[in-house]
Amino acid sequence: MAVLCVFALAFLLRLIYLGHLGELPFFDHPIMDASYHDTWAREIAGGSLMRSEPFFRAPLYSYVLAFIYSVSEGSFLVPRLIQFILGGLTSAAVYLLGKRLMGGTAGIVAGLFAAACPVLIYFDGELLSESLFTFLCMLSLLLLDVAARGRKPGLWLWPGLSLGLALVTRPTVGLFIPLAALGCLWLARRKALAALALLLGLAIPITPVTLHNYAVSGEFIPVVWQGGLNLYLGNNPSANGWSATSPEIRKDWWGGYRDMIAIPRESLGREPGFGEVSAFWQGKAADFVRTEPGAWVRLMLKKVSLFWNAMEFPNNQDYNFMKLHSWVLRNPLVNFRVIAPLCLLGIFVLLPRRRNLYFAYAFLLAYFTGTVLFFVCSRYRAPALPTICLFAGGAVWYLAGLARARRWSPLLLCLAGLASAGLVVNVNLTGETLPDLAQSYTQLGKVYLELDRNEEAAGYFRTAAEVNPEWGEAYEQLGMVSMKQGLKEEAVNYLRKAVELQPEQATAFRALAMLYLSLGNLEEAGNAAAQAIRLAPYLEDSHNILGSVHRERGSPNQAKRLFLEELEIAPGNWRAQANLAGVLRSEGNLKAAAEAYERAVALEPNDQGLLLALSGVYAELGEEDRA
To answer: What confidence score (pLDDT) does residue 607 get?
Structure first.
């Protein structure tokens, strides 16, 4: 009965949150990583089961999401309802594991903590892998305990299968797998057969992923090839411990992806393999550790502190922004500030039970280590929360036992330790502060801009500028709104303000260059485009704009070189193809011009100007029928 109550509470709280989430446009207009998963899942649901390259992101979540889309006609509601069920099952698994390991009281408290934990509720509502991954991790711990207490070696197949599924959902669980194998060899009765069953379970989900990666690339990539980049983003001279960014890599999703490949391509002087890209960034992370060991050690200590600090640093989208829109996420009684100090106490007071709790200890240690090695933010800490709730429930059970036994001295000592842990969690020891909400308001405005609700978009961009008057992206987006509305002079003023506030913002310079070009101000357009290229050499369309400036100035050779450079960066840029075709046509190279126009038309088949230009070239070639 208790397990049903824990599940029901978890599901009810998530349903309430669903009502709040549904009021925001993010519900059916996902952004960044959620948009990536949504797009990929819809491609799979549409029949594109295989990718043309190895998996960059672990694939299981997107395939599960694709299945849900296929049976729900692409609904944005149904995946969230299923994830809320997974959240309830995760909470139930915490209860069951706590009951098995420490008794009913510990299980109920731990399960209720997991059911009401606001961060877990929040991520169950996002189209991200956290909900599925967290459930699989807790299921693995429960199945490992069942196998360790059972007599049949075949029982170890099931936690192996669950861990394998978790690995192809997010590979960071990989650090736990050797510890799980050691636990199997320690606790299993028939060790060899049990270990074999565990490995077989792991291999079942991993093998098809590895085979897919080899089939499309010829490279041995067990699951994904993004590990090297993530390691570098978390370990470089500019790393702050929580943000997955670097000055070398653009912050937007596809811009960062392209830079990740373009930079090693430039360094190697050829097209790198997927494994080479990962190794390149891994090497840069190793260079930082080797050349600046003191800075790296300080960074690691900072990340250790951030992991156990109550601040929830954002990634993809800001949990702190969503708290403004839902009282469910503002729960003052169950949150990291309360649960984490209890967990830290539980880790110590439950040490005498470490044999029974081996897998819980091992998972928390492995997941903590993996998070700290990369970067610490709310999203990547979230899968550890159920295990943190487990130890927190154990601490409450232990303290209650001391009180019932009237063992006042150890109780007072534990309460003093709890107070100390509370200080560690709730005092900012790193000096790092949460970012303001300007970016969140900007993201909201961008969604409205995509929906052609320009006035609402502009309102949120202005709110972002009010929250942080130094936030240049708000002015950049206001400039984009003005451009859409045909208010070019107003757009110039906004974009100039943007580059004054954030002179490293390449996209603002690119927009400014495009605007100056449309106004016929070639000098300013050229300067702005050159600055965009200097700041972000692989930023799409910057070379195309600068090439257009040179073409207008009567320098066709420079223009052609820049159009070709643009097409190396972005082969799908139809404007660059059309501009290249125009230069080739002016040179009299009609056959090459026709081919370039054909490529442009293939990319943008409904543009009448392209079709007219292509027909003109065909006419000049004497191909009247094609014209």
So the answer is: 86
- Is 597:584 a contact under the CB 8 Å cutoff? no
Q: Give residue for tokens 């049949």.
A: 152
- Number of C-alpha atoms within 13 angstroms, CB side, residue 191? 8
**Which residues, in sequence order, are CB contacts of 431 under 8 Å at separation 6+?**
none
Nearest of 162, 117, 109, 161 to residue 139 by alpha carbon: 162
* Number of Cα atoms under 13 Å in the Cβ half of residue 189: 10
pTM for the structure as a whole: 0.91
Note the pLDDT of residue 115: 97
Structure tokens at 557: 């050779």
Lookup: tokens for 546:
């600068």
Amino acid in the structure at residue 338:
V
Taken in order 172, 173, 178, 179, is the CA torsion positive or negative? positive
Mean of the pLDDT values across residues 514-538? 90
Residue 78 burial (CB count, 10 A) = 14
| Residue 271 CB coordination number (10 Å) | 9
Residue 368: both structure tokens together: 């903590």
Percent of the chain with pLDDT over 90: 67
Q: Could you read off the pLDDT of 281-315 as tens digits, one per residue?
A: 999 999 999 999 999 999 999 999 999 999 999 98
pLDDT tens digits for range 99-136:
999 999 999 999 999 999 999 999 999 999 999 999 99
| DSSP SS3 for 317 | strand
Q: In the structure encoding, which two tokens stand for residue 534, read together? A: 């200097």
What pLDDT score does 328 carry? 95
- Those residues whose C-beta lies under 8 Å from the C-beta of residue 555, and which sit 6 or more positions away, are none
- 352-358 contacts at long range (C-beta below 8 A, 24 or more positions apart): 353/101, 353/102, 355/187, 356/101, 357/101, 357/394, 358/148, 358/183, 358/186, 358/187
Angle between helices 542-552 and 574-586 (to 10 degrees): 30
Q: Which of 414, 422, 380 is nearest to 173 (CA)?
A: 380
Tell me the C-alpha distance between 359 and 177, whole Å. Answer: 10
* Residue 440 near residue 318 (C-beta atoms within 8 A): yes
Q: How many CA atoms lie less than 13 Å away from 542 in the CB half-sphere?
A: 22
Nearest to 473 by CA among 443, 434, 428, 452: 443
Beta-carbon neighbour count of residue 182 at 10 Å?
13
